[in-house]
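User: I've been going back and forth on whether these two constructs are worth ordering. Before I decide, could you fold them both?

Assistant: Sure. I'll take them in the order you sent them. The first construct and its structure tokens:
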Amino acid sequence: MGFRCGIIGLPNVGKSTLFNALTRTSAAQAENYPFCTIEPNIGEVDVPDKRLEILSKINKSQKILPARLTFVDIAGLVKGASQGEGLGNQFLSNIKEVDAVAHVVRCFEDDNITHVNGQIDPIRDIEIIETELLLSDIANLEKRQTSLEKKAKSNDKESKEKLILIEEILEKLNNNILFDLKSLDEKNQKYFQEFALLTGKKIIYVCNVDEESAKSGNQYSEKIHEYGMSKEINVIKISANIESQISELSDEDRDEYIKSLGLAEPGLNALINEGYNALDLITYFTSGPKETRAWTITKNTLAPKSAGKIHTDFEKGFIRAETINYDELTNFSSYNEAKDAGRIRLEGKEYEVKDGDIMNFRFNN
């Protein structure tokens, strides 16, 4: 599994259209009225990685198993969502279940598609959503604070520690400042994760532009790029209409169509890449005659924990890992040739797995 990416935004910004295109389904309704999506739509896609096919040929694998990414199309949020407007509480709770958020912002003019606030203003639209996420977090932390104060009175150490952290977070959020998780030690980072803050999710701004602006952007997407830079949030441009057309084409026709538009890659690839970057994710591979498979882990993950992605027994009984990086293996015609050349390394429990590593784990049963 890669990661779970929630697609959020105001109503009628193109979330469901984009979801349908990215997942090549018609599961999500795409209608011109607010709240056409109530229950979150969920779809899975393969994570594109050209290395898989090459590894499969080198090792003569019978099948290829890419990493999988889950998209969750969450209904449109509106001003007042944190107080329940537009079924907001239900929608906000869906965001807690994802790892990263693709915040779709309307960056196109179209008189035939109603804008919930009357006119296009991407920064205002972003701030409406982010204010609702922040207000929801404040309310949830204050509730948790009340509960923990009762436990703290009985000298519960953990409750006291959590209360201190909540006070620090609330001070930031009440001043419209996002809390920096990196400033915490390991124990407090664990507490922070328990709080499941909406404002703690990694965000990618997705500018939904018209077809003519897919390559170079427009005045609206430029504003979001500047805004994103000021908040250190990555921004990508996607035309949901183009992605819809791409989703109907064969792989060969899709590549030709993308080239004809002057685009480097489909929007799906760009969104996945930014998601991996935002979450500090990398890919390692297992490859042999049976299958070549991609596994998603966080950067700096040690070899035993990486082995645990395959099976918990691999982590518990870890002995060592035989490994070679993809860039080096492709200099040889086969894994055995690389092994005969002495290029396969033996790595122990302290080895940090790198992106592109091909791993063969040895473990005790």
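The second construct, handled the same way:
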Amino acid sequence: MAGHRQSRKRRHLTWAVTCAAVVAGAGIAAQTSMAATTWPAQSTFTGRAFDTCAAPSLSAMKAWHTGFHGAAAVYVGGRNRGCAQPNLTASWVKSVSSLGWKLVPVYAGAQPPCQSGSGPEKLTAATAASLGAKDAADAVAKASALGMKAGSPVYLDMEAYDVTDKACDDAVLTYVRAFDKGLRAKTYRGGYYGFSSSSAKAIATASDRTDLPGNLWYALWDRQNTTTADWPWGAGRFTGHSRGHQYMVDSKETYGGVTLTVDRDAWDAPVAVTG
């Protein structure tokens, strides 16, 4: 995801810098714990996925439907979304779903106060809770408008930051908790994208699991198509089809005569409920 709002040079610099406990066991259980809530069935995909800044055209998705990739991540909203989405409509979602594609909804929400660089939306300690709730409501509205129904996950995109900065980390966790709580109130499942060395680590190693997302999508660019062999935080953590792994970036690939540059993901986690 870093490259979807940063240049290739910047994303690798970010990776280099960020490279210099108790976690929920079953991800499904972690998200269905709200009392008196009837949860829609979860749709899970296990296999290869890809993500790219702008949702490809329907013709490109038809050409790419070869069986190599089975799911695609799409940016449903967020003020930090890096690309316009002319293709991403309810009609597009319906059409690509009918082809057999599974979709991974991503929300480019507020970013940490200690993160280098600037963006349209940054959280602060004072605004973290209210902004998280506001962004969750927006994420549900955007996903729903696209035909992604209750029971779907929304993966909050949190880029790299200094997790040793306690004030910053506390603010991020407050925002994430408010976002996740807002999703669950509408029976959408909480997901989170981040770097294994920083933003994902903050979620995976938080001692207080209250209102944290039950699905973790970690960026670790080791070119290993797995959600288990290089999982950094212990085999019993985020189990029950709750892991995604972004393992390769800037991969130029051609299927059906159509070439796209994408990031590759190993996927074993919830996807959007459509149709």
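Notes on the second construct follow. Confidence is low (pLDDT under 50) at residues 5-26, 32-36. The radius of gyration is 17 Å.
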